[in-house]
Amino acid sequence: MSDNSTFSLFAWGANSHGQLGVGYENEMEMKPVRLDTSLVEGEIRQISGGGGHTLILDSSGQVYTCGWNNKGQLGVGDFENRTIFAKIPAEFFQERKIISVSSGWDTSAAITEDQELYMWGSNQFGQFGMEDFRQTEIPRKIEKISCQEKIVQVTLGLRHVCILTESGTLHILGKFKRPYGERSIKIFGPISKMTTGQHHLIYLRPNKSFETVGDNKFHQCSDESLNNFTEDVSELKSGWTHSGLLTHSRKVFLWGRNSYGQLGREASDPIATPSQLNIHRNVREFHLGSEHGLCVTEDGKAFTWGWNEHGNCGNGDTENIFEPQEVSLPGKCALAGVGAGFCYCVVK
Fold first, then answer.
1. What whole-number distance in Å separates Cα of residue 313 and Cα of residue 167?
2. Of 225, 255, 273, 328, whose CB is crowded by the most CB atoms within 10 A?
3. pLDDT above 70: percentage of residues in the chain
4. Is the dihedral of CA 272, 273, 279, 285 positive or negative?
C-alpha cells in the first residue's frame, strides 16, 4: 500500500450515485470532503469523472472506481453502484499496466502501457466499434483499432468515443452529430491533440491549424477566430457545449455556451472567440465539467467557476459563479479532475 500520509484526496459536488467516493449517496457536497484513500496502492496520477462515476489511476498502473454503475461503467464485474472506491481487478486488463483513463457519460476507457485500448460500460450506440452487445461490466480490449495501431489518446462524449492513434489518425465510434451517416468514421492525420464534448469535436494539427466537427449551436466549435489563434497550445478540453485550451504560456482561453458562467464571465450569450479566463495567475492544469470549470495554478491554488447547482464549485453555495473563485483546501493542490457536476483535488 502507498504512504497515504503524503497526500489527501478531496471531492465535492453532485453525489447522487456515490461518485464522490465518500461512502454514501446524497444530493451534493457543497464543500470539499476528505476521502479514504487506504485502498490506493500508488501515487494518484489521474482522475477522470463521467456522468455519475469516477476513475482514479495510480502510479502502479491500477484503476479504482466508484459511483453510478447501471451500464457496468465501473468495470468491476457487476452493475451495483459503489459509494467507496473499488479496485478494478488487474486480470480484467490481462495484467497490463494502465497509463491513462477516460470517462464518458456511462462508458469508460483505459490505455495500457502497450498502447492498447480497453473499454467498458454502455455500448448502446456502438461506441466500442461493435454492436453485438449493449453493455459490459468487464473491460474489453477494442481489437478493431488496437490490433492495427497503437493508441495515444481516447476521449469520450455523450454517445461517442474519439480515439487518436500513433500515426495521428482519429477514429470516431458511436452516435455523434456530424455530416456523416456512419457510426464509425476516420479522420486522417496528422493530428496532435483533440477534445470532444456532448456533440462536437475539436482537433489540432501539427501545423497549428484547428478543425472542428459536429454541433455548433452555442459556438462550441468557435469560428474563424480559432484559426487566428497564434499561441502554442498545451492542452485542449471540452465541456458539454463549451470548449477551452491551455497555452504554453499557462493561460486558459474559453469559448462556447455561457448560460451558467462556464466561460468565467457574466455574458449570457454564447461567445465564439476564444477569450482568456480572468485569473491573473499562471495555470498548471485545467479541466472542464459539463458546465463548470476547475483550474490549478502553478502555486497549487484551485479555482472553480460556472454551474454550481450541486455544489460543483465547492464554495458552500449553489449559486452559479461567473468568475474564478479559489476553493478552500488545507494545502496545495497537486492534481485535479472533474466529472459532469463534481470535482476532485489531491492535496499535499
1. 38
2. 255
3. 95
4. positive
Taken as a whole, the chain contains a residue count of: 348
User: Counting Cβ atoms within 10 Å, is residue 1 exposed (0-12), middle (13-18) or buried (19+)?
Assistant: exposed
Nearest to residue 121, comparing CAs of 154, 84, 170, 152?
154
DSSP 218-259: TSTT--GGGGG--S-EEEEEE-SSEEEEEETTS-EEEEE--T
Secondary structure (DSSP) of 181-216:
--SEEEE-S---EEEE-SSEEEEE-TTS-EEEEE--
The pLDDT tens digits of the residues spanning 94-143 come to 999 999 999 999 999 999 999 999 999 999 999 998 878 999 999 999 98
- State the cell numbers at 235: 492542452
φ, ψ at 91 (rounded to 5°): -65, -20
Q: Rounded CA gap, 318 and 313, in Å?
A: 8
User: Which amino acid belongs to residue 245?
Assistant: L
Which amino acid is present at 267?
A
Side-chain-side CA neighbours of 223 within 13 Å: the count stands at: 9
Task: Give the C-alpha separation, 178 to 192, whole Å.
Answer: 21
